[in-house]
Design brief:
This protein has 239 residues and is of the alpha/beta class. The chain is built from eleven helices and six strands. Bound molecules: iron/sulfur cluster. The site of iron/sulfur cluster (SF4) has 14 residues, from helix 4 and helix 7.
Amino acid sequence: MSARRTSDEGVARLARARALGERFLYRIDEVAEETVSSTSTAPDETGFDASGWDALRQEVLDCTKCELHKSRTQGVFGSGTPDTGFMIVGEAPGYYEDQQGEAFVGKAGQLLTKILAAIGFGRDEVFITNILKSRPPKNADPSPDQIAACEPYLERQIEIIDPAVILALGRHAARTLLGVDGSMASLRGRVFEYRGVPLVATYHPAALLRNPNLKRPTWEDVQLARKVYDEELQRRASQ
Ligand code: SF4
């Protein structure tokens, strides 16, 4: 636990997590037709150092470290609050993300919002980002060179956030963070560790839109991530 995470903060987070848990009643299929009410809250007072975070955001927006800066509309640093224990990492911005400068908008983003609601989170209660901060043309797979250039930004985001759990969406995110080459079927359903942070991998929401059969395993995985999050908050609160 970093120095800025005090025991009191851990207790406050645990209370908040329990309140969120009361809404942990839905299934993805059940919320799909519902209007998901916002559960957003302002960042709490945890002494979070915003200056380092803002400087990192500006670095990403100004970045020219790989060729993707030439074709992007803008860098996409991430969406949500950095003062959270629940961090989501996807692959790369797509068309709408590139246009709007926000992570996970468009149809896949809307589905992610419903999935988050199903485990008790509003979008503004988590932080959502990608391995790459700039859109690859035609949504091409991230190249090893692009990942190598961009990954330090993600590492610093994780260092600052100090999340209780990371949910990796899609095989590129999972493979990059875990440094392995397995299929998603072989990586999902388990708890890994990334630099001391518990990590759960599951399918990308875009894959669910193409193949509804992936909904059930994804639902199992996000429930697992929520469980790991709750347990990690409890562990931190007890320290
Ligand atoms: S993808 Fe990452 S490394 Fe490449 S230009 Fe964008 S922010 Fe920089």
